[in-house]
């Protein structure tokens, strides 16, 4: 068996609840079409403001998955 090779892609998750929920939303959606996901890195965190309060969180993730043999 050879050492694994990984590929990266970016996804942006959103949530009105929290940063963690935005991450979970991005991973859950990506898992519908991408197999073998192993890790992620949050590269950006943003939010929308409405009436002086956080309306929606937005996080950009780099997600790594292994290429199949």
What is the compact description of this entry?
By secondary structure, the chain is of the alpha+beta class. It is about 15% helix and about 55% strand.
Describe this structure in words.
- It contains one helix and three strands, in the order E-H-E-E.
- A hairpin with a 2-residue loop joins strand 2 (37-50) and strand 3.
- With 69 residues, it is an alpha+beta fold.
- It has one helix at residues 19-30; strands at residues 6-15, 37-50, 53-66.
- It has a single domain (6-66), classed as Dodecin subunit-like.
- Helix content is 17%, strand content 55%.
- It has a three-stranded antiparallel sheet.
Outline the fold blueprint.
Blueprint (H helix, E strand, L loop, with lengths): L5 E10 L3 H12 L6 E14 L2 E14 L3
Antiparallel strand pairs: 1-3, 2-3
Features:
single chain; 1 helix; 69 residues; 3 strands; three-stranded antiparallel beta sheet; alpha+beta; Dodecin subunit-like
Give me the count of strands. 3
Question: How would a crystallographer describe the biggest sheet?
Answer: 3 strands, antiparallel
Mean pLDDT: 95
H/E series, N to C?
EHEE
Strand order, largest beta sheet = 1-3-2
Q: How does the helix and strand content classify structurally?
A: alpha+beta
Estimated helix fraction: 10-25%
How many individual domains? 1
Q: How large is the share of residues in beta strands?
A: over 45%
């Amino acid at each position: 068996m050879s050492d694994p090779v990984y590929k990266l892609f970016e996804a942006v998750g959103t949530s009105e609840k929290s940063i963690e929920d935005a991450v979970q939303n991005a991973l859950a959606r990506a898992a519908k079409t991408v197999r073998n996901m192993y890790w992620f890195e949050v590269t950006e965190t943003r939010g929308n403001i409405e009436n002086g309060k956080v309306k929606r969180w937005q996080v950009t993730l780099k997600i790594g998955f292994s290429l199949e043999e």
